[in-house]
Known about the structure:
The chain is built from three helices and nine strands, in the order αββββαββαβββ. It is of the alpha+beta class. Strands 1, 2, 3, 4, 5, 6, 7, 8 and 9 form a nine-stranded antiparallel sheet that branches. The chain is globular.
Amino acid sequence: MLQDQAGATPRSRARRRLDTEHRLAHDVDVWVATASTDGAPYLVPLSFDWDGVALRVATPANSPTGRNLAAAGTVRLALGPTRDVTMIDGTVEAVDLDALPQEQGDRFAARTGFDPRTLTTRYRWFHITPQRVQAWREENELTDRELMRDGRWLA
C-alpha cells in the first residue's frame, strides 16, 4: 500500500480514500502551497498533525507562508510522491499558539518531533479543513480522482 505501482490496476475510489486516510494518519510532512496578496507563489514543506477532521501546521506568523495562510484563508496541500499524490484544497483558520488546548499542542509535538511553543520566534497554528481531496497514481486513476467535494467524502 502507498507505494509506486506504475501500471497497476486502478484503485477504486473507496480504496483511494482508505489510502489517503492512511497517509494523513501516518505521514508527518506535507507540501504547503500559498500565494501572496499580489499573487507571488510560495511552496514549503511543513510538519502536520491530522485529527480526523483537520490538519494542523505551525509556522512563524511573519513568514511568507504564515502571512499568506492568514490573508487568503485557503491553501493547497500535497502529500506523497508524484506517482502516488494526494492533493488537498482546504480552508484555513489561524490560531495563536496559546489559544490551542495543551493536549492538542502536545499531540502535534509528539507526532512531528517539533514543538513551536518552545521557540522564541512567534509561531501560529493553522488549522486546515479539507474541502476538496484528489488522489491518483497514474493516468489510469485520473477518472474518479476526486475523493472529497465541498468538504464531504464521495466514497
